[in-house]
Amino acid sequence: CKKPSTVTIQDFVFSGLRSAGNTSNLIKAAVTPAFVSSFPGLNGLGISAARLDLDLGGVVPLHTHPSANELLLVTQGSILSGFISSSNSVYYKTLSQGDIMVFPQ
Ligand SMILES: *[C@@H]1O[C@H](CO)[C@@H](O)[C@H](O)[C@H]1NC(C)=O
């Protein structure tokens, strides 16, 4: 926690998601985080954000969400997105610009 007297508007604003991440890598994807370490206003709120850039053929490797839900909003293009539930059911769909999908914890 910051001392209240040192808090400024900059603690509640994060502009680091304006630019695309570098997708010149093996997975053709880049995740730019807006986590509490760079966005102090999130402290204690239980939320964070990230920007995901995917090149053509890009992929986010299979991963788990042990302690957080995720809400994905497609702002450009389309992606095939999905998850495997804890009971091994598979849910996936092609998402287009403006679609949102939730990934349970
Ligand atoms: C993106 O990453 C690649 C591979 O690391 C690097 O060669 C390239 O310079 C980077 N591009 C930018 C714009 O940072």
Molecular structure report:
The structure is a single chain. This protein is an all-beta fold. It has two domains: 1-61, no CATH class; 65-105, no CATH class. It contains no helices and six strands. The protein has strands spanning 29-34, 49-54, 70-73, 78-84, 90-96, 100-103. The strands form three sheets. Strands 1-2 form a two-stranded antiparallel ribbon. The two termini are 26 Å apart. The mean pLDDT is 95. The protein binds 2-acetamido-2-deoxy-beta-D-glucopyranose. 2-acetamido-2-deoxy-beta-D-glucopyranose (NAG) binds next to loops.
Percentage of helical residues? under 10%
Question: Can you write the helix and strand succession as a string?
Answer: EEEEEE
Total individual domains:
2
**Uncertain runs:** none
- Number of strand elements: 6
Mean pLDDT: 95
Strands of the widest sheet, in order across it, are 1-2
Shape: globular
Layout of strands and helices, then pairs:
Blueprint: E1 29-34, E2 49-54, E3 70-73, E4 78-84, E5 90-96, E6 100-103
Antiparallel strand pairs: 1-2, 3-6, 4-5
Task: Describe this structure in a few short sentences.
With 105 residues, the chain is mainly β. It folds into two domains: 1-61, no CATH class; 65-105, no CATH class.
Quick tags:
two-stranded antiparallel sheet, 0% helix, mainly beta, binds 2-acetamido-2-deoxy-beta-D-glucopyranose, 2 domains, 105 residues
